[in-house]
């Protein structure tokens, strides 16, 4: 099979060059740590006059740009640690980033719930603990298709990362203690649910090969962010039917009850058209209306991608006044600027 | 050939459903005009207490989402008029939108320089003139590959639309007269240059067929926003060589002289990975450094797409203090929120 055509230099350099390009795209608001693929906010909170701020470190495998590296900035993360493509960042890099951003109040880690990330972030925290830095974790487990609700710790993190990092960013900016920032962020994570649909696979830059194959008339519901198998491979149907099926899995899971208010995210996995996402949005809103669920805020676009995978995911975050406050707080980064 | 796989309902309804989804994604900040595919800011400037504001109407063919429809909002356009896929909006819809947003100070039109758009916006302006509404135009002609500089009126509008609309939005918000808003917007347009590279074609939803074919190892430099032929079809080379070639066409065209400062936009045409755009950004910055050109602000992501075309365009806008002020002014819409 032909390699998927992409405009790259040496494929061995994709992550180093991506990180370099991201820092340049931030127009001076981030820098790269010496010796590590860690993107750090610049000026730091301390340099900007905010002493003793709770640190926020995010990260995971590369290849999902603009997450996580595009979420470093004011009201968002203090640093992002970037692994190789679809691979967890190293414990050393995590520990170095933790030391860089800690200002005495401790550091909150937010990352997707994948075995490699869990292991390496835990080892990074241990290394940082040797330097007397307190660390707490929020692991995002929003993908309802990854495991049944009873085994929520087996669920993976997908686009819901965006909402959890956004709220963590505001909480770490405004809370006096790591425990309080953790409490708010953990609540956001617990209230977030997502499900995806894949239309075609993405490819890994080094191999140039798609990570799976779908038939010319097939889609897959519940596909993971690296091409992990979903819950249903099926003939492609009308958009409204696809959305209905996804919403039927999403709404009862938390559950999102009549009268509640949510933030809605429709995330492009890569190559789908904005048209398809907007067409889905009509039907999502119809389903939410039917369920008596209100929408406080909509985000639609590319946030967590799987290279050039075609498809999208739907994320709902159930809000209360506290979460709404932190979701709406100002933020500024390469991938997310609001307020 | 198999239809390109997309998650749609009836393909005859794509534009109506896209517009509906866009309005819903705006969380109450836009509405749809009765009887027309026109997205209008809500509350209007007048309803928000800004009387006698110069109106800003943007628009063009659909299929390029999030432009133009995603640029309606505070600090941006008062309305966007949406044609069929890759087809100019009707004079009737343009005239109706003009009447809806005029508050006595006249209306500025900003749109891409395509024969169909020019004809229909001119006819719309004539109809609006019958109602004693003054209209002025800025036609975006940023694509350096579309025609030689001597025939700049034959050049098409591509992603540079974003910068021109952003500056027009701020100018129409703050200027007392249509002539003054036009002057600033026309300067922005005159200072904007773009060039694109296509890796693969997009398809039209109704036919499901790609608009052109490229070989498995080919790219095309200068491809237009609807798949119009570019200046060079060639074997794909390293990213740095592709960028060097594009910058060599871009920099001397205005020209962007040593010591000047620009805003930089790297626009994803649809299906390219963010990784490719970030990798390009490194080299673009290298070329700009070599040319002694400084970067005031970088935008990177999906702004003007050609369905699922893979590829990207590079846009430079030469800034002065006035343009910088309007570029940096706050804005809020589905596709663009800053400050």
From TrEMBL, chains A, B:
Residues 10-336 form the DhaK domain. This is Dihydroxyacetone kinase subunit DhaK. GO terms for biological process: glycerol catabolic process. It comes from the Bacteria. One of its GO terms (molecular function) is glycerone kinase activity. Pfam families: Dak1. The lineage of its organism: Bacteria, Pseudomonadati, Pseudomonadota, Alphaproteobacteria, Acetobacterales. InterPro entries: DhaK_dom, Dihydroxyacetone_Kinase. GO terms for cellular component: cytosol. Keywords: Kinase, Transferase. Gene3D superfamilies: Dihydroxyacetone kinase, domain 1, Dihydroxyacetone kinase, domain 2.
